[in-house]
Every structure is written in C-alpha cells, then in structure tokens.
Write a structure and sequence with these properties.
This protein is mostly beta strands. It contains two helices and twelve strands. The protein is 7% helix and 52% strand. It has an eight-stranded antiparallel beta barrel with strand order 2-3-4-5-11-10-9-8. The longest helix is centred in the middle third of the chain and has 8 residues. The mean pLDDT is 93.
Length: 209
Amino acid sequence: MFDFFKKKAVEKKSLIPEVLGLRLGGVIELDALKMKIIEPDLTISGAATTQLIQAVGVVQLDNSTRLIRYYTDDDAMIQVLMDGDSDADIQQCMLSYYYSTTPIDTDTKWNQWLAQQGVVKSHWDLDGVNFTKLWENELPVAMTETTWTSEIESSQTDQFVMLYSRDVNPDLCEVLIVSAEEQIINNSADRCLVLSTAFELQPNDFKVN
C-alpha cells in the first residue's frame, strides 16, 4: 500500500562496454577455416580459435569516438573502433596479437622513444618484413586506456602509438601497432615498448558464447 513512498532501486549501468556480444568473461570462437587460410601469410602463428575474454579496455578518442579492446587468454585483443554507442556505429574491428614487450628502464630511453625516429619512423622492419607508417603524425599519438578485469578493478595506461601496415595480398592488410606505454604503480613509472600485429575482422569471422 505504501510502495509509492519507497525509493525504488535504480539498476546501475556497467562501465564495462559490450559490443557485438563481446563482454568480460565471454568466449570467442574464431572462424577456424579463415584462420587456417590466412595465418601462414601473417606474422602470428598458432592462434587459438577459442579464446576467453579476461579484460576490457576503453580509450576515449573524442566525445563520440572510442576504442574498445577485449583482451583474451591467447595474448590477443579484439579492438573495436566506434563512433557512437550501438553496434551500428562500429567503424572497424581488428584482431591483434602481441609480438613483443620490452621494458624501458630509464627516462633517457623513454624520451628517445617518444621523440622523432623513436616510435614514429617512415618504416618499421619486423624480422625482415617491412611495414610502412600509416598515420601522418611526426610524433606518437597519445591516448589513455582504462582497463577493467572486473566490475570493481580497473587500471589506467598512457599509450603513445603509431600504426604501420603492409599488404599481405589484395584482400588482406596486416597492421603493426607500436606503443610506448606507461603505468604509474606505487608512485613509480612502469614503462615498456609493446609491438603487436593485427588484421581486420568481419562480424561473421567470429561468434561469442
């Protein structure tokens, strides 16, 4: 009878985004046939066709544009570029794999990577494979990622990034992501240079359980 006077519970919206069914704790099933066909021409090898999403990262690029990154237990990441909030606003979807992570242990080395001819070069040689700079910037593009491993656990990483690319064949382009990354942990800077390679995914290239 007196429900009118009771404050109704408001459902709290999760800060962790879900896109194309991708979500923290979800299981990705990649198209095994497609991976078998294209993997020999890519830098990666032995990609698992079943992967568990263990973390979700968000980079807000401007008021409406953001990158959403779904990190898996196979050292991989599905990155979704969105200009809006719905699946219809997706601009691009890529599958990325870590290639290497190198610690940067001095301020001098860190500043060298952020300067010209550090992260940003006209070309990047990856074990004899040549990638060409994709963006016109002369210095790395700065972005900050907030990464969730649960609804209550998150961290922030500053990233200074440049993309490179190569044409594998007329239908496939491979992207090299070079990122100098910094986290502040216990008032101390933890820095590293991260190299990853990626290629574009279509919505029918995977499903999420």
